[in-house]
Amino acid sequence: MYRTHTCGELRITDIDKEVSLAGWVQAVRKFGSITFLDLRDRYGITQLLFGEDLNKVLDNDPPGREFVLQVTGRVSERSNKNAQISTGDIEIAVSSFKILNRSAVPPFSIQDDTDGGDDLRMKYRFLDLRRNTLKKNLELRYAVNRSARNYLHEHHFMDIETPFLIRSTPEGARDFVVPSRMNPGQFYALPQSPQTFKQLLMVSGYDRYYQVVKCFRDEDLRADRQPEFTQIDCEMAFVEQEDILVMFEGLIRQIFKEVKGITYSGEVERMTWEDAMWTYGNDKPDIRFGMKLCNLRFPSHTFTGKPSITSLIEGANFPVFDTAETVIAIAVPGCSEYTRKQTDELTEWVKRPQIGMKGLVFIKCNADGTYKSSAEKFYSEERLKSIAESAGAIAGDLVLILAGAEEKTRKAMSELRLEMGRRLALRKEDEFRLLWVLDFPLFEYAEDDNRWVARHHPFTSPKPSDIDTMIGNDPVITNPAEYLKHPYANIKANAYDMVLNGNEIGGGSIRIYQRELQEKMFEALGMDKAEQQHKFGFLLGAFEYGAPPHGGIAFGFDRLCAILGGSESIRDFIAFPKNNSGRDVMIDAPSTIDEKQFTELQIRLNLK
Amino acid sequence: MYRTHTCGELRITDIDKEVSLAGWVQAVRKFGSITFLDLRDRYGITQLLFGEDLNKVLDNDPPGREFVLQVTGRVSERSNKNAQISTGDIEIAVSSFKILNRSAVPPFSIQDDTDGGDDLRMKYRFLDLRRNTLKKNLELRYAVNRSARNYLHEHHFMDIETPFLIRSTPEGARDFVVPSRMNPGQFYALPQSPQTFKQLLMVSGYDRYYQVVKCFRDEDLRADRQPEFTQIDCEMAFVEQEDILVMFEGLIRQIFKEVKGITYSGEVERMTWEDAMWTYGNDKPDIRFGMKLCNLRFPSHTFTGKPSITSLIEGANFPVFDTAETVIAIAVPGCSEYTRKQTDELTEWVKRPQIGMKGLVFIKCNADGTYKSSAEKFYSEERLKSIAESAGAIAGDLVLILAGAEEKTRKAMSELRLEMGRRLALRKEDEFRLLWVLDFPLFEYAEDDNRWVARHHPFTSPKPSDIDTMIGNDPVITNPAEYLKHPYANIKANAYDMVLNGNEIGGGSIRIYQRELQEKMFEALGMDKAEQQHKFGFLLGAFEYGAPPHGGIAFGFDRLCAILGGSESIRDFIAFPKNNSGRDVMIDAPSTIDEKQFTELQIRLNLK
Q: Contact A176/B166, CB-based, under 8 Å?
């Protein structure tokens, strides 16, 4: 036993106890013939006092930062108390000590505000993990893990492990594959999710399943994506959508309470996918602030039952609006006094390649009731007023308008709204707003192949009211130009996403559990019977032996932790993350392998 | 909501409640105009009563076994109660029902004593998992998981996830590798264990780590081995061996108590590796029964300080004993009256290729005090008596003696002892005996390469008293014939295995945390500086920045569950296991992959 206590444990009530501590040297302060040394471990920092005798020993071989020390001594009251730390009332009058290990000078300082750059900190991740910031992140991650497990256990969910070496059935993302030595020429795939296995567990009668489980996707990595990531994966049998929503609102409420000390009171809002796209331009809207989209023009077929207010912008011979498929406005509160420089900067912002718009039209709703606009050559003040009012602007607001092709413009306006929210500090780190987005389209149209693709995944059930439409119609699209008129275009999915502060933290669906419907789904995705049988024969087979109605959800654990930790970056919440090239720069992986491994696996390289 | 209650929930106190249940048809019993139907779910079985009206509906479309039903009705008291099941006092008088899904006739019966063979049950694993036996196994597995997590949490361990896509450093077993598309020509490896990562976490100051984690080994599969398996993986900093032993005895005690309701009282026995080999011929002895080995002859150098009793067998001109390196006896209690047929059968048993001995010598210690032996031509009754007594035999016992090369004979005797224990029912399923095996040799000698290999793994520390021997000597073996005289041959490891009923359920060690010692270890294993740096530079680097003393253990979760469940087969405790060819026959994995996948990964097949 190297220690009797941790460095975060001793209090004024421990005075005069003889104790042993072990930890790392955080700081050394020499005052003449005595030395104060801060000893750090996972639990805190304790001040050590080396008196005159030991001071000489220290001088002979001074312990530097990050040395590992073991000390024995007596707990004493500090004359100069430190209210900042839990052990701040005491110090240890050291009677003996031992250097357990030495440390070279770290390449960056082990402090909250470190001087290390990203690359250096990734290379020396084992040192970066010593910093309080990262430690708190991993502690939060563990607390979320624990809280989720406890909630699910209390609700009779069982953790059942599903296999990692499975079959490659590339549908959505790319699989990582693993050559099988014992079955030459064949490969396993690493799971993108335990989807089919958890469905089989429902067929097996394990009606409440969960797993906190690693998943794998071989995709080009955008910022904040990792090739391996963790899901809280859940499935339930004999449930409808409402049962799932209630159960997993409860899960998130419990996590809020146990991990953040926040009682999430009030209903979790619900919004259809169509309303989310209409109102926020985005299927994962941040509802902590308004600035809702005003759809001045939009293409027919895009939204159903939404009012047209195109008249507000028509007939002014303003080519920017007249030639655009879509025109959308937002009212930014209190920004009517933006200078030319500021509006120019916003225009540049939307013209950046990431956003890709051609320009930005603005209307300033001045405090005196007048209106100024970059389009005032085309629109009378009266018309500007109508447009601004339709966007919900009041005096003092700045209306921003984008015009262009539907998809791009809506996405750009969504980004602009979020950016303005950020600039106006409306996206508060300590405010949490949950939202269910519902009623997604079941299919998307794939122009290249002139066929349907599953928006969620091929196991998602249509709404009960759409099942007949799906079964009763041929999925083939005979007239590509009019694919929107195909009955499949309007089929809604029994799917739901949970959105927190503008981030999708979880998503799921009620699943298909009838063989006939599942076959129809595969057929719609362009799979013939032979391919269906080859890839998913086991699932179709399982549906023949009494599959119960079921559904589930998976939460992105890394992202959930990051959001709860008030961060944008999931990487800071993963102990050993990979960089954007999928590399672990600390261990230098991936790497070459031996010739012997190639021989045994009966594969070779075929480099371009 | 498909149900108000589960099929295991309703009691006599629920009489007259209007309820809904959903589940699977277990059995249908028709009696004239009424029908009884047993409805099954994860929680139990409830009897349904269909009266005259509904009976006609049933007759039109009779639900078969494994159909999924939803029923509504009133809870009634049964006239014919069934004390075997928790719901046996009641039945549901069904007022309406719905067939939620149909089922083909299952390929085997969903019962405890199923008629399905192994292959069929593996193919239809989703049906096999419906059987009560497998359900209880998975429930036990979850209970062990939960109990372990709770214990570790209470003792301040943190679950920290380590990566699955790591670097291939084939030392012991073969790695599974994963081609990296983003880094062509390079490969990840799947972890054989999180060993180096958990050590880095100790360097990072997370002084108590755990994970219930999948690990991967690409080895030829013997019975009861899986290419992917689960470990309860733990590591602690600032500890010595004793701290680890106490902590993890506690873990197993808690699991015994919470999962099996067994208070494991008394000390956990401890035994050196040498004593285990001497007394049981095995480093994971089953100590539920005696039948200890009597070492009549053994080669010098094999054991230190053990008494020689070779004189008992010498000078009789019995070639079988005289030419053997090793002669070992055991006394099998109460078997002196074995017939010729029975001793012949035992002789055949040890001559099987799996055991590989040339024959078996026996001494019958008759109840009347006489001795009979297959070697009585060579040994007087007096000498037979001495041999039998040295093996601990009393009147009525049967002494079995094997002779041959040391390693083979010791192993064979260990197997024979276990076999006799099994035949005499001394290995009781409901008796649990824990044992720590300690003081393993640090190195084994690899004849082919004339070098040392790490018995445990290259990160295991020698005993503190052996560190100087290791640092101070050149690991090179100049005289292969006398490798046992090399100072490294006697270095003991700071390692420990936990053994339960003759199975290694966990193993670990105190680790090396000093760069110099780690380098010496790598050097002993035949790695030059460049290779050390290439493969383990990150770990050696980490040891430069204040690595604390640390150690840990990993439990084989699958095996632990199997033993606690009273089974020999881990496969029955894994939801979706692979067969002995590493195949999942249900999903038919591994499988071929698409040409596109080969192209993207820049690899191709190179089949022999």
A: no
Distance CA B301, CA A345 (A): 84
Here the tokens at position A337 are 């006094």
Task: Please state which architecture CATH assigns to domain B12-101.
Answer: Beta Barrel (2.40)
Average pLDDT score over residue span A52-64? 91
CB pair distance less than 8 Å for B1 and A549: no
> From the candidates B99, B128, B155, B165, which should be mutated to test the interface with A, based on the most A CB atoms within 10 A?
B165
Could you tell me which chain A residue has the CA closest to the CA of B21?
Answer: A238
> Considering CB atoms only, which of A126, A139, A183 is closest to B582?
A183
Of the candidates A149, A168, A603, the beta carbon closest to that of B591 is on A168
Measured between beta carbons, which residues in chain B are less than 8 angstroms from residue A603? 603-606
Q: Which amino acid is at B347?
A: T
3-state secondary structure of A414: helix
Separation between Cα atoms, residue B97 and residue B316, nearest integer Å: 85
B582 with A180: Cβ contact below 8 A: yes
From chain B, pick out residues whose CB is under 8 angstroms from the CB of A206.
42, 129, 135, 138
Mean pLDDT of B256-261: 96
* Closest by CA position to A504, among listed A598, A429, A435, A593: A435
End-to-end CA distance of chain B: 57
To test the contact with chain A by mutation, choose from B37, B127, B161 the residue with the greatest count of A C-beta atoms within 10 A, namely B161
User: Inter-chain contact A216–B165, Cβ cutoff 8 Å?
Assistant: yes
Which residue among A543, A594, A604 sits closest to B603, beta carbon to beta carbon? A604
A367 Cβ contact partners less than 8 Å away, ≥ 6 residues apart: A336, A395, A396
Residue A596, burial from CB neighbour count under 10 angstroms (0-12, 13-18, 19+): exposed
Q: Where are the domains of chain A?
A: 12-101, 133-264+555-597, 289-427, 441-492+514-545
Superfamily holding B289-427: GAD-like domain (3.30.1360.30)
**From the CA of B389, how many Å to the nearest CA of chain A?**
45
Instruction: Name the residue among A1, A187, A220 with its Cβ closest to that of B593.
Output: A187
pLDDT of residue A172: 72
Which residue of chain B is at minimal alpha-carbon distance from A158? B142
- From the list B187, B534, B23, B365, the residue with the least C-alpha distance to A598 is B187
Residue B171 has pLDDT above 70, yes or no: no
pLDDT given for residue A265 in this prediction: 86
Strand arrangement of the beta sheet that strand B398-404 belongs to: B294-297, B326-332, B398-404, B361-365, B371-373
A491: pLDDT strictly greater than 90: yes
**Cβ atoms of residues A268 and A434 within 8 Å:** yes
Query: Who wins on pLDDT, B89 or A170?
Result: B89
Paired tokens of B455: 């018995």
For residue range A183-217, what is the model confidence (pLDDT) as tens digits?
Answer: 999 999 999 999 999 999 999 999 999 999 999 99
**B513 and A41 in contact by Cβ < 8 A?**
no
Q: What is the pTM of this model?
A: 0.95
What pLDDT, in 10s, does the model give residues B367-391?
999 999 999 999 999 999 999 999 9
User: What residues contact B467, with CB distance under 8 A and at least 6 apart?
Assistant: B461, B517
Beta carbons within 10 angstroms of residue B528's beta carbon: 10
Q: What is the ipTM of this complex?
A: 0.95
CATH superfamily of A133-264+555-597: Bira Bifunctional Protein; Domain 2 (3.30.930.10)
Q: Which of A70, A153, A230 sits opposite B146 (nearest CB)?
A: A153
Confidence at residue A570, expressed as pLDDT on a 0 to 100 scale: 94
Q: Do B602 and A598 touch (CB under 8 A)?
A: no
**Considering CB atoms only, which of A68, A70, A200 is closest to B546?**
A68
Question: How much is the average pLDDT of B220-231?
Answer: 88
B552-574 per-position pLDDT tens digit: 999 999 999 999 999 888 999 99
